[in-house]
């Protein structure tokens, strides 16, 4: 399955006012390193990120995991760069 990513300029099509809190949903196979790898990328862009702001949900048969990550972005480029790096991870199937 190919990863899904938002089209370039998606954030500019919204009416976000920065700084703001922003939810990102990341989905992938429920493997031991999925959360660790996603959190490593999140912390590269947001070093003060608190894991308590992440919500995890498993699919019915626990094959897939969905993470909802709430970040505090100062500018649009932070969100764009985070999406780009998250979708480059092989474990990530989709980021919304």
How does this model look, in words?
- With 96 residues, the chain is α+β, with helices and mostly antiparallel strands.
- It has one domain (18-95): Alpha-Beta Plaits (2-Layer Sandwich).
- It has 2 helices and 4 strands, in the order E-H-E-E-H-E.
- It has a 4-stranded antiparallel β-sheet with strand order 2-3-1-4.
- Strand 2 (54-58) and strand 3 (64-73) form a beta hairpin.
- Helix 1 (34-45) runs antiparallel to helix 2 (76-87).
- The radius of gyration is 13 Å and the shape is globular.
- The relative contact order is 0.33.
Summarize the structure.
With 96 residues, this protein is an alpha+beta fold.
List keywords for this structure.
Alpha-Beta Plaits; alpha+beta; 96 residues; 2 helices; 25% helix
Radius of gyration: 13 Å
Can you say what the CATH homologous superfamily is? Answer: ACT domain
Number of E-state strands: 4
Reported by name, the CATH topology is Alpha-Beta Plaits
The major β-sheet equals: 4 strands, antiparallel
What gap, in angstroms, lies between the N and C termini?
A: 16 Å
Report strand order across the widest sheet.
Answer: 2-3-1-4
Low-confidence stretches: none
**CATH level-two architecture:** 2-Layer Sandwich
Helix count equals 2
Q: What would the principal axes of the Cα set say about the shape? A: globular
Quote the beta fraction: 25-35%
Q: Supply the helix-strand structural class.
A: alpha+beta
CATH level 1 class label = Alpha Beta
Which percent bin holds the helix content?
A: 25-40%
Q: Mean pLDDT, as a whole number?
A: 89
Q: Could you spell the SSE succession in H and E letters? A: EHEEHE
């Amino acid at each position: 399955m190919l990863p899904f990513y938002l089209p370039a300029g998606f954030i500019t099509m919204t009416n976000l006012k920065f700084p703001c809190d922003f939810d990102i949903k990341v989905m992938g196979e429920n493997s031991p390193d999925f959360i660790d790898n996603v959190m490593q990328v999140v912390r590269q862009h947001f070093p003060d990120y608190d894991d308590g702001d992440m919500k995890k949900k498993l699919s019915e048969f626990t094959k897939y995991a969905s993470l909802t990550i709430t970040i505090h972005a100062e500018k649009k480029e932070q969100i764009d760069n985070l999406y780009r790096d998250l979708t480059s991870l092989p474990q990530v199937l989709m980021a919304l």
